Amino acid sequence: MDKEFLKIIKSELDLIETTLKNYLDSQHPFINQVSEYIIFSGGKRIRPLLTVLSAKLFLSEDLDSNYLETIYRTSILFEYLHAATLLHDDVVDSAEFRRGRKAARNIWGNQATILVGDYLYAKALRLASLLENIKIMDVITQTTLLMSEGEVLQLLNLDNFFLTEAQYEEVIFRKTAVLISACCEVGAILGGADERECLLLKDFGKYLGLAFQIVDDLLDYLSEETGKDLGKDFKEGKVTLPVIYALKIASEEEKNTLLNLLKMPDTNKKDFETAKKIIEKNKGFTKSKERAKHYINLAKNCLKNLPNNLYKDLLIFISDYLLERKK
Amino acid sequence: MDKEFLKIIKSELDLIETTLKNYLDSQHPFINQVSEYIIFSGGKRIRPLLTVLSAKLFLSEDLDSNYLETIYRTSILFEYLHAATLLHDDVVDSAEFRRGRKAARNIWGNQATILVGDYLYAKALRLASLLENIKIMDVITQTTLLMSEGEVLQLLNLDNFFLTEAQYEEVIFRKTAVLISACCEVGAILGGADERECLLLKDFGKYLGLAFQIVDDLLDYLSEETGKDLGKDFKEGKVTLPVIYALKIASEEEKNTLLNLLKMPDTNKKDFETAKKIIEKNKGFTKSKERAKHYINLAKNCLKNLPNNLYKDLLIFISDYLLERKK
User: Fold this and answer.
1) For every residue of A184-205, which 3-state class applies, written as one string?
2) Chain B touched by A135 (CB under 8 Å)
3) Backbone angles phi, psi at A102, to 5 degrees
4) pTM of this prediction?
5) Contacting residues of B for A152, CB less than 8 Å apart
6) Is any Cβ of chain A less than 8 angstroms from the Cβ of B132?
7) Domain A2-324: which topology?
8) How many Cβ atoms sit within 10 Å of the Cβ of residue B327?
């Protein structure tokens, strides 16, 4: 069964990939070049995939090809939005690397990176407006507003080593969950779902997004990938859920060691391993994983009373995959 | 008559000022603080003013107060959009000053400035979507896309000392005229204008915007204000219309001197005066002024066949003012 699912997902991803390429159509080659660099840098395409599957969950199989095109075109706007935030994040964080290769700002400089970020953002909104759908525009503008406020909050929290779990969840809600929630809600709207169903998909996306970011933050410590991204949060002194949980029950000595390591401007591999050991010993990783699992369960619960079909199975399959992924 | 006009404009500006303040309503004081700093830094409010007047041009005097509120709320989104581009521009240009005082980035740093710029952009789009008007969303998303591409183009042209007049006009079209055009077109839509009338207001705004930027670039050399902004373009080595015209007829020696001065990383007051003299002698200023006048005439021409009323007179009055202003 998994093999069958993976095959279908693969074919959806191929269509998304083609669509992503087709709509990067600025008349100015430089804009396309920088955009393509960030868009085609090995992203998982989870956002557009969720939009497509959420739409198809409510649609019959024999769809008008024009409407299918509309669905894919809309799905990619979330990838453009996401890419825009990555470009600005990298400038804000002075990031050297992104997904194991040079960050765009490291090639074209901060100036171009800021402005191409603005371009991708504008492009996403432009694609949204082509739908001429007031409800979708409402979801998307609300989403971008929440996200942009969240980015500022995250910046203000940068040196807050005593971030609470609630504050952390507020940050990841705005940073990740709001957008993934919008992907699913907009998919449902495109699928012609009724209001109750749209709300369920909105919540499904929210819980999935929270779990997704918690797993991401876990993988920053535990990923099997050994790219330059591993330990990025640690190096930047960013407090994430594993640290928050560990600090709760760690001894005074462990707490001080962990906090000092996080505050250090330059850390090496040994420091990283020391931090990992303290977090591990104080259940930071297992509890984070449990929390992610809790959200995945809430997400799957939202789907319970929705039509039973292939696309529902796929959404559940993806939820489980996002929890168990190793990179 | 002028006094009467100024009085009416003043009362419109007061309403705009209040509305600008009311909608800066982020729950996070820091976001409001940075936003207010850039929004309330002595801007002329020409964009919201044009939206309000363009709407009223087509409306009867006894307007529903809710609808009036909608018009003012919509007008300010253009000021938020404009402020967002200023924040990002200042980061991109490493600007120290803006409108005679410290640039926001000089107080809160590049990071916060980029992110609050994103916030103001999102806020503007959010205000637009509240109208639930597909046509207006279409205008605004098209506008922001053109503008953001233009910003990248401008960056790529930074070291182009042989900018042609056509290239210059493309830059100022995207940088300034597109947004001012949108202000007027959206105003007309809000006023219930028909398609032909909306198009006329769109063109009116475009020509007015082109003239506005040409005058702005002229004032960079000739302003009576002696703030730290004077000669900003010159210091940055930015080629604007006065330089383009002057280079056309200058002697080989003058050409070299002017280009060398523009290319110099550090220039003093004497250099600035030398450049001004070369531009003046080679008609750079007078021809630029003529060009601005040409666009103001085109702008006023667009209004010819529209209803004759106070608001048309005010739009003409403002067009003349923008041409003759000294700062």
Assistant:
1) HHHHHHHCCCCHHHHHHHHHHH
2) no
3) -55, 135
4) 0.95
5) 28, 30-31, 112, 115-116, 119
6) yes
7) Farnesyl Diphosphate Synthase (1.10.600)
8) 12
Contacts of B28 (CB under 8 A, 6+ apart): A149, A152, A153, A156
Token pair for A224: 């099997």
Q: Label residues B163-185 b or e (16+ Cβ within 10 Å = b).
A: beeeebbbbbbbbbbbbbbbbbb
pLDDT at B149 over 70: yes
Q: What whole-number distance in Å separates Cα of residue A74 and Cα of residue A136?
A: 10
Q: Which residue has the tokens 């383009």?
A: B244
Sign of torsion over alpha carbons B103, B109, B114, B119 = negative
Q: Rounded to a whole number, what is the distance in Å from the CA of A4 to chain B's nearest CA?
A: 40
Contact B127, B70 (CB under 8 A): no
Q: For chain B, what is the total number of helices (H) and then of strands (E)?
A: 15, 2
DSSP string, A244-273: HHHHHH--HHHHHHHHHHHH-SS--HHHHH
Q: Where are the domains of chain B?
A: 2-324
**What are the angstrom distances between the C-alpha of B189 and each of A246, B74, B126, B207?**
57, 11, 18, 19
CB atoms within 10 A of CB A100: 13
Give the residues across from B98 on adjacent strands.
Answer: B101
Under-50 pLDDT residues of chain A: none
Nearest CA in chain A to B131: A134
- State pLDDT tens for residues B13-35: 999 999 999 999 898 999 999 99
- Contact A155/B116, CB-based, under 8 Å? no
- DSSP state for residue B305 in the 8-state scheme: T
CA dist B194 and B289 (Å) reads: 34
Measured between CB atoms, does A125 come within 8 Å of chain B?
A: yes
Longest pairwise C-alpha distance within chain A = 64
Give Rg (Cα) of chain A: 20
pLDDT band at B226 (very low <50, low <70, confident <90, very high): low
Kindly state the tokens that stand for A228: 């330059």
Rounded Cα distance between A267 and A237, Å, is 10
A104 touches chain B (CB under 8 A): no
ipTM of the complex, rounded to two decimals: 0.94
Please write the tens of the pLDDT for every residue from A181-199. Answer: 999 999 999 999 999 999 9
DSSP state of A173: I
- Give the Cα-Cα-Cα angle A218, A221, A223 (nearest 5 degrees): 85
Residue of B nearest to A32 (CA): B149
Burial (CB count <10 Å: 0-12, 13-18, 19+), residue B206:
buried
Which residue, among A292, A221, A226, A293, has the nearest Cα to A261 in the 3D structure?
A221
Residue A22's nearest CA partner among A61, A75, A67, A85 is: A75
